[in-house]
Amino acid sequence: MQIALFGYGFRPFFLAAAIAAALLVPWWAAFLVWGIPLETSWPPALWHGHEMLFGFIVAAIAGFLLTAVPSWTGARGLAGWPLALLAGLWALGRLAVSTAAYLTLPLVAAVDLAFLPALAALVLPPLVRSANRNTRLLAVLVGLWATNAAFYWGLRRGDPALARHALRVGIDFVLLLVTVIGGRIVPAFTSAALKQRGLAAPVSVSPKLTSLAVIVMLALIGVDLWRPEGAAAGVVALAAAIIQGTRLMQWGGWRALRMPIVWVLHLAYLWLPLGLALEALALLGRCAFAAYYLHALTIGAIAMMISAVMTRAALGHTGRPLVVSRPTACGYGLLAAAALVRVFGPAAIALPYPEVILIAGSLWTAAFAIFLIVYTPILLAPRADGKPG
């Protein structure tokens, strides 16, 4: 009998992403505030950045792709022992990184770098067979793998600047994915929800703006590869902020304020132009209050979009109504508050840095603890409608 946890790709990987989020951030906060050891030989900030990107975020991306590709192609979703092995490979990478102080760096790198090619090998065949337009999205997996390889090369050479640079470009690839996927699901889900409530107001989607948004995010990747944190990066970030902000305004998120499962998508996407605008202010205007723009993009845009997608997909793909509970809506708010404190706390509110880390980390942890409390039983149980998956 097939275990429900391995009945569909979103189940183990959304659970793994939430567990990683709920453990990694408080551990990092405890290290910064109280000196609790991280048990790593890596520079601590690099360990934090790597595991948030290649632990938490990559697990969520895997869960999304393993669920979306069958919908895009009509192919059977990955399930059973192949899915369990893939999840085990991700977990093995996390174990290798967490014990890196006792292992050789080439061994850690080999184990950790194996996951993304394995994921790509499983989702590529149905995309190719169906000549699906989403095949090009696998370039994001290639980009993430390359940045992870560059990260390990930086560690190998004793070059933390190279490793940090690799993580920054890796984040850019994830922001590109948010741009493409968010640009599809936010207006589509908003339109569907408004129609369900008897509101026939159209949701505008401009193909030209869509193309511009993708182009400008590709330009951001290019400029960060070439000269990160320079004036050119600031100019591109400013252009991206204007384009992404204009795009978001077209979707009319204010009409969905009574529907948390919809407004959270708009709130997550709002952090994208906001973070890019802060980046432009930090790089071009040297504005102190914008110095932590990276966390607006990572906590606000990426983590909140992950939370929005995981909560929605976990309901929809287990045969449950697309209505989130009050605790889940509260979790959305806690995550937004974590982003606000982390981004604006040090300069705009003048909070001492340890307090910023402690407050933001507590809010973040509470948000994902709520997810685990509400959604672990859903992810571990069979579908409510009795269907497979």
Distance between the termini: 13 Å
Helix content: over 70%
Tally of contiguous helical segments: 13
Low-confidence stretches: none
Largest sheet, described in full? none
CATH architecture: Up-down Bundle
Order of helices and strands: HHHHHHHHHHHHH
Q: Examine the coordinates and then state which fold CATH places here, giving the name of the CATH topology.
A: Cytochrome C Oxidase, Chain A
Overall 3D shape: globular
Quick synopsis:
This protein is mainly α. 75% of the residues lie in helices and 0% in strands. The chain has one domain: Cytochrome c oxidase-like, subunit I domain (Cytochrome C Oxidase, Chain A, Up-down Bundle).
Structure in words:
By secondary structure, the protein is mostly helical. It has a single domain (4-380), classed as Cytochrome c oxidase-like, subunit I domain (Cytochrome C Oxidase, Chain A), CATH 1.20.210.10. It has helices at residues 10-34, 44-73, 81-98, 105-113, 115-129, 138-157, 160-196, 207-226, 231-250, 260-284, 293-316, 326-344, 353-380. The longest helix is centred in the middle third of the chain and has 37 residues, at 160-196.
Secondary structure blueprint with pairings:
Layout: H1 10-34, H2 44-73, H3 81-98, H4 105-113, H5 115-129, H6 138-157, H7 160-196, H8 207-226, H9 231-250, H10 260-284, H11 293-316, H12 326-344, H13 353-380
Helix pairs in contact: 1-2, 1-13, 2-3, 2-5, 2-7, 2-11, 3-4, 4-6, 5-6, 6-7, 7-8, 7-10, 7-11, 8-9, 9-10, 10-11, 11-12, 11-13, 12-13
